[in-house]
Amino acid sequence: MERIERHASHGGFQEVWQHTSSTLGSGMHFGIYLPAAALAGRRCPVLYWLSGLTCTEQNFITKAGAQRYAAEHGLIVVAPDTSPRGENVADDPAYDLGQGAGFYVNAAQQPWARHYRMYDYVVDELPALVETEFPASAARAISGHSMGGHGALTIALRNPGRYRSVSAFSPIAAPSRVPWGEKAFGAYLGADREAWKQHDTVELLRGATERLPLLVEQGGDDEFLESQLKPELLQAACEAAGHPLQLNIRPGYDHSYYFIASFIGEHIAHHAAALR
Ligand SMILES: N[C@@H](CCC(=O)N[C@@H](CSC=O)C(=O)NCC(=O)O)C(=O)O
């Protein structure tokens, strides 16, 4: 493992590390913000952030402005790249499949199955690495944006007890029923839609055994709102299952990191309260 960036930020450090992931069979980058308390050797709770389509580990750490709030609350924030990478890793010319579009699933179909195992990477390998190599405690929270919002919600719902809190910005709430999800799930998981249910928030809510409250932020002027995100399906599924949901629709905000930066402080405060 090698540190490739280090920047002083709000009394702590924003770093980027690269390592060889045994799960993905490829090199992987992740960003990690270490607050002052962690630098002093105290074990700090960790917020995992999952980014969206076309992103690397850089988008969140350079655009969201999360460091200020992570410093305030003494949280480590870990932001991995969104897929395996490299010349030997399968890819597709479209922005919504292949490298930069891992969708936080374990692919079962060729040519993706060898490397595209972002579900296992985020749930198992990355936290094990972070909790061994950094002053991180096992108190975890998870959040993300768009494809990463889908990743955060599905991973939390499938792993009761593993995360103390979950939130999402503009999540793809019902990927089985929208073009981004249908394309990615068809390619990575195959034609059998039964297998898709394990990666669909709206489907998972039906059988959830832990009612971890969902905090969801959604821009009212998001260009993908009706075609890809469908928060109304999330709301209906939560109501039907009796699952606690705080859905904040923010008029005028779009799908961009300007929206995330506007509300990331509130989400970090929410996670910090659960992680204390
Ligand atoms: N057609 C666009 C789509 C890419 C895009 O909007 N990506 C979002 C996430 S969308 C869902 O996962 C994003 O976070 N972009 C990076 C950023 O820094 O804004 C395109 O290809 O541009």
Automatic annotation (TrEMBL):
Q: One Gene Ontology cellular component annotation?
A: cytosol
Q: Tell me which EC number(s) this protein carries.
A: 3.1.2.12
Q: Does the keyword Hydrolase apply?
A: yes
The record's keywords, sorted A to Z, are: Hydrolase, Serine esterase
**Active-site residue list:** S146 (charge relay system), D222 (charge relay system), H255 (charge relay system)
The GO terms describing molecular function are: carboxylic ester hydrolase activity; S-formylglutathione hydrolase activity
Q: Which GO terms describe its biological process?
A: formaldehyde catabolic process
Q: Does the keyword Hydrolase apply?
A: yes
Q: Which InterPro entries does the annotation name? A: AB_hydrolase_fold, Esterase-like, S-formylglutathione_hydrol
* One Pfam family named in its UniProt record: Esterase
Gene3D superfamilies from the UniProt entry: alpha/beta hydrolase
**Which reactions is this enzyme annotated as catalysing?**
S-formylglutathione + H2O = formate + glutathione + H(+)
**Stated role:** Serine hydrolase involved in the detoxification of formaldehyde.
Family to which this protein belongs: Belongs to the esterase D family.
Q: Which PANTHER family match?
A: S-FORMYLGLUTATHIONE HYDROLASE (PTHR10061)
Output this protein's name: S-formylglutathione hydrolase
Gene that this sequence comes from: fghA
